[in-house]
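notes to self, project folder thing:

trying the whole complex as one job this time. last attempt i did each chain seperately and stitching them together was a nightmare. two parts in total, labels are on each line so i dont mix them up again. if this works i'll redo the older ones the same way
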Amino acid sequence: MSPYTGSMYHGSPLLLLVLGPLAVKRIEGQPEHLLCSLLLVIADILNALLIRATGQSLQKAYAQHLEALDLFKLSEESGMLPSGDIAALVYLWNPFTIVACVGLSTSPIENLAILLALYGACKGLVSLAAFGWVLATHMSLYPAILLIPIILFLGYGPDAPPKKLFLQRSYGKCGTSPSSDQYCKTEDVTDPLELQIIFSWRRVMQFLLWTFIWGIYFLLLCDISVKQYGGLSEMFKRTYGFILTMKDLSPNIGVLWYFFAEVFDFFRDFFLIVFHVNILFMMLPLAIRLKHRPGFLAFVYLAISSMFKSYPSIGDSALYLAVLALFVNELADMKFSFFLFCGYVGVSLLSPVMHNLWIWRGTGNANFYFATAMAYACLQIILVVESVSAMLNHDRKLRKITTVQLADGKS
Amino acid sequence: MAFLSRPIFALLLLFSAAFASGSAIGGGGGEEGEDFSEELLLKPLPDRKVLAHFHFETSAPEFPSYGRHHRLFPKAIAQLVKKFHIQEMELSFTQGRWNYESWGGFEPIASSNAKPPGVELWAVFDVPPDDVDASWKNLTHSLSGLFCASINFLESSTAYAAPEWSFRPAPGSLRYGTLPREAVCTENLTPWLKLLPCRDKAGISLLMDRPSIYRGFYHSQRLRLRSIKTSSDGTHSSIILEQTLTVVLHPNIQKTSSMNSGETKLQPSWSMSSIFGRKISGTCVLAKSSNVYLQLDWGLVRELKHLQNGNQEVRVDSIMEETFLSNPAFALSDEPDKVINSRSEGSSAILYEFSVRKHSDLGPFDLGFTWKTPLVWLCPQLPLRVSRFLMGSGNERGAIAISLRSTRAREGLTNAEEMVESCKVDVNVFQVVPWYIKVYYHTMKVFVDGKPIAVSDIIEKINVSPSEDKVSPGVLEMILKLPCSVDSAAFTLEFDKGFLHIDEYPPDANQGFDIPPAVITFPNFLVKMHFGEDNSSKQSAVLSRFQDSIPVRSYTEVLLVPLTTPDFSMPYNVITITCTVFALYFGSLLNVLRRRVNEEERFLKSKEKRSSPLSRLLSKLSAKLGGKPVVTSQSSARSSSFISLKLILKIILVAGIAIAWKYFSE
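result (full assembly):
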């Protein structure tokens, strides 16, 4: 029987090949879902390790850049926090992660694919990045938008202060140095940091090639596994089609299920387009503004897609919160962080209560639960807007300091 | 006036006589002509009620000799059959639930006329497999027009199913659908009566007094069509239209209680006029035969035998000869024309036949049945009593359970045969589940005598087609093989409840959703009555139906599943609030991205340079006084005032344009 008969399964056929036997097989005297949950726990631990490795490399790059800008003081004054360790701990101790894992959600595996892609891109491992991206896109479609951060990662290298600062600085050096312009240019070439400002097309082309290879490979595997059940077109209809048309209206932590349960039928297509375009629409402005910080850009994309996703889960929130923690140093001045923290705690406590009241006791109303979902959406919006704002402010601060330094140097 | 009306009356008489003779000829014509017969079967039930089963049968050759016209057969139905190539079809409108325990389960009426509440429709088409769905859809619309019912709701693919083998052995071309919540009323009965040649103006159908019929405990109005190939090469076929109305009525108690006030356990006596409020005043002249039968169950017959045996020592055979026409238990108001003994599986039932034509000669026919001795008897029970129920609480998930319990009657039946160890009872289950009940078929658990058993041990054959959201319902067909000695068996299926769009809820959404009943068939147990070699039973339509060997079938209860409802008054609020929040997100994020502090400052500085010398002087002064930070703050302060000035200018400009426009347009 095809895995897609009966509107029960809408995931990848390859994931089913892995999870299906595990879900059926059981060890004597143990609960039946033990093997599955074991797999999910392993995936979560791997996720934490990947986050830690990514964070360490990001932090190293950050420290290097500050050094290049002669901003040791800044790093020493504020006391650089080990962001990788913090992010990994945030991921592992996040109640969302734990709940998603206990609830046997597949989100740890999807998160694993996303983090593989980010780690590979951050370390410059082109094939790994391509593999992670293709796998993540294959499993849940939305990570497709991570293509831009990954390309920026590979092109520009890990997160850095704006390019302009380096140029300014190098020109400033030239201006202060008594020698001629000629000398200045040769110095530029020798500076290893200057190289990273140039967009390296070679690695991007490599990445695209690898993406192509992995894509073909996955399509082939899928084709083999679903050949007798209607082929790839059926698979795309049942996985991506199901995501894009939002057919299932079961309550989740997002707001779209209730929206589409209530919206008039003739507006349905319009709003489907609006909400999905909303994800795509912010991509370009964000990419332009944050092109020097691909890691942070990836976080923003993840947060936005988890907000507008057809079927969001708390596993997505766990992921973007962990990625957010990678930037503790940069986002130290973020506003409303306490309010956001309280909001998250409140929503995560109230939401199950309201769900229980509505579904199980029958004393509540759908609106109760929808209100918590709405509050959650608002919190996510504030988080995204404030973090982007804080990151831009951080860049401004760096610029201000460097200009002051340059001005001091000149005078 | 009088002499004018007399010849007309005479003409009418002549006409009707000619018609009657014509019908007689038609009836004798056999296969070529069209036949109509009307019959009524009455049966006292153990729980002080009376079953009335009307049976009208019209048959016609598919290609009648009058071109497209029919003499008796309703044209609408003939066209239906011809257009949609219907091989077999059954439509039933039912109100109330058949009580299998006290009204009988193992007997022809219960097996073929006990129907689930609401509308049930199934049809077998004689078309290629690809066209079956289209034919079904057209058929539902035609029928809904014909019977003033919302049968057209069966058109959507979520409402009907195509059982492979569990309902009837007709793979591919059978479609089955039910509407459990359809209300049945006179508006459905009237078009049904219109199909009869005499409507309800004459004959047995005269008894159908609407208030008394719909007052009953059970009311099932059925229409069944069959195309039968009469000749071997299949070119010559005929259509048989079978219309039955099965009603369970309660005789008027007050009358009987006043008559027999002393004996409380005595069954209420009844007559046609007391249960229907009407009498049969004449036959339908178009009918080939119009008979009234009174059936005594084998359980009742056995009790009567006991009663007689107790009173006088007579051999059983002689009692059968006597056929209780004079007995201490009850009395009939009219003498039956014929007494038919039926034997099935070692038990016997008795049928009294009354020809309406003979009895209504003298006056209106009113058959009365008066009890003289209180009697308690048992009805033929189903092999296994089936019930279905829901488990679990809350609106997220639950479980359906179907439980089968053995009845004592089955033991009574099987004890005649030797109890073999390998004796098995086949139970055929057919269940349609709407898509919003998302059944997990892998969670099926089977319990036999309260102990869990591996599913594969007991299920001989299973066919599952899972439901697809908003496309098709889930269908479960399976054959259970239970040992004969089983006391109880149950199986459960877990399900998740779906969430629907606001438009998909019925008007009273909080009442819940009805799951159509499961059809349980026992293929090993065949219902068949034998009427000996008597030729009369072949002529009677009811009795020939009783002689068909059909497996025992029963329907379970309709389940009412409450589903969670969204707030139906909220669509505008939800749309506006959600859109507002997302607009806020979009606006604020773009704003954050757009804001550039440094550029703004530089721009303002360049502006400043071009501004008045006084302000330049001031800024220079202040720069000298306080250093750079002060400059920026001042410039920003200036800029804000500058912006506000600009804004005011703009507003004035727009207002001016508006005033000018207004002035000129006037």
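what i see at first glance: The first helix of chain A runs from residue 13 to 24.
need to look closer tmrw
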